[in-house]
Predict the 3D structure of the following.
Amino acid sequence: MGHGQRRNKRAKRWKRNAYILIVGTAVVTVAWLVAPAARDTGPVPPGGQVVDIDGTMGGFSMQEIRAKAGRPLTVRLTSVDTQFHTDGGGKHQFAIDGLGVNIIAPPKGTRWATFTPATPGVYEYYCDVCCGGRANPTMQGRLIVEA
Ligand SMILES: [Cu+2]
């Protein structure tokens, strides 16, 4: 085998290894980015209603929630965003001023709160920690509490 051939072989092997490393890293990164957030299901009071809602940069997954007055309601908020979002760091909030509810989900995480709306009515919920916050029409919704 000539000198040039050997060098050529070594260069080829180096190229293949670099290729495997780059593709492997990309695959792992993409898998991590698209993986669903771990759903942390906390304790739920018996007889209560549970609502799972996602916060994304595109808004809440639900813009209307119906509940019954006097019945415990557990809201589980999951942020599907990563910490690499420059606006809000991947956190999302679910707040209802009139009911003292304020849930903030960390990036790719879930937080929940249980509360019992006593009075029928329409309560606005919103997120104010990301992308335009309350001014963003997709980061708000209505909790409709029926008698
Ligand atoms: Cu948000």
Notes: Residues 116 and 136 are 27 Å apart (CA to CA). Strands lie at 49-56, 59-60, 64-68, 73-79, 92-96, 101-105, 110-115, 121-126, 140-146. The chain has a mean pLDDT of 86. Residues 49-146 form a domain with the Immunoglobulin-like fold (CATH 2.60.40.420).
